[in-house]
Amino acid sequence: MHKIIAILFLLVMAKTTVAQTVSEMPLYSGVIPGSKQSSIKEQIIFVNAGVRISSVITPTLTKFTPVKPNGTSIIICPGGGYGRLAIDHEGVEVAKLLNAEGITAFVLKYRLPNDTIMMDKTIGPLQDAQQAIRTVRKQATALGLNPAKIGIMGFSAGGHLAATAATHFNFIADVAINDTTSVRPDFAILLYPVISFDDSIAHKGSKTNLIGKNPTAEQTKNFSNELLVTKNTAPSFLVHAGDDGTVPVENSIRYYQACIKNKVPVEMHLYPKGGHGFGLNNKTTSDKWFDRLINWINTIR
Q1: Which segments within 55-141 are labelled E, that is strand?
Q2: Are 190 and 238 spatial neighbours (Cβ–Cβ below 8 Å)?
Q3: pLDDT tens digits for range 99-151
Q4: Do the beta carbons of residue 150 and residue 182 sit within 8 Å?
Q5: What is the pLDDT of residue 187?
Q6: E strands in the chain
Q7: Nearest 10 degrees: CA dihedral of 157, 163, 165, 169?
């Protein structure tokens, strides 16, 4: 299935005038941690001219290499409520723009929580995010990348995964691994992110898909990332719309406040309108959050 995804990426890339190279690799070289045998097949869905992926069985990293890499790299986690991946406008299109700035991008096709294919669905996505960071960091020198400038970026539920990676790096999700390579991202970029599983502001679909309909109080707390920010949390950049009716803006606000409290460098851009899932283009404003992002990245290099 990953070959089909690579073809889709190449078709999208054909629309750009920026010269890039694209290559896809399996995230794991051997057994996928916590996996179970299943007859489920990965699916590609076309929705309103967009590409969505569901039932991910084999996670992959697709690398987008710019013409003149500057050494910085970003792993992108598309959103989709932990039920599918918006691989186009929250993945490929973002990678293309990052490449135009000299940033090497990796689109992570991560496993979506599913009891049928996972022994513990609550940690499957985090296992993949940590493995992505581990892989890029281990290969950084060979790839011409700076191992100390590896960021993680996520949209919506992908933002929850990115925030989880930014706050849970001392917890190794794959208990069987002996690799001691750091899985702490050097910075985190969170776009209209699901941050908290507090029922008052949680995106119920993401919460249910990841930890079930009847989670324990400990599970709810453990995946409410605003509660887990420490002084060692990665510097963070947040974007949200005040009228987001899917993921309340309070998610970003709480994370921002937690960063301030713990003296973590953080920048947040809130737009009055834009709703949810606008990707690169918030049509309600002429301001481009991506330009703000590049300015911010330049301050932390």
Answers
A1: 60-65, 73-77, 85-86, 104-109
A2: yes
A3: 999 999 999 999 999 999 999 999 999 999 999 999 999 999 999 999 999 99
A4: no
A5: 98
A6: 21-26, 43-47, 50-54, 60-65, 73-77, 85-86, 104-109, 150-155, 187-191, 236-241, 266-271
A7: -150
> Between the CA atoms of 177, 224, 55 and 139, what dihedral angle is there, to the nearest 10 degrees?
-40
Check if the beta carbon of residue 99 is closer than 8 Å to that of residue 68. Answer: no
Residue 279 φ/ψ region, left for φ over 0, alpha for ψ in the -120 to 50 degree band, beta for the rest: left
Which amino acid is residue 191, in one-letter code? L
Lookup result for tokens 């009228």: 243
Indicate the pTM of the whole model: 0.94
185: left (phi over 0), alpha (psi -120 to 50) or beta: beta
Report the helix count and the strand count for the chain, using DSSP H and E.
8, 11
CA gap 252, 240 in Å, rounded:
7
- How would residue 176 be classed by pLDDT, with cut points 50, 70 and 90? confident
Amino acid at 257: Q
- Find, among 89, 93, 266, the residue nearest to 166 by Cα: 266
Q: What is the CATH number of domain 2-300?
A: 3.40.50.1820
Residue of higher predicted confidence among 173 and 127? 127
Joined tokens for residue 172 = 């190794």
Asked if 54 and 84 touch (Cβ cutoff 8 Å), the reply is yes
For the chain, give every domain's residue range: 2-300
- Rounded Cα gap, residues 296 and 237, in angstroms: 8
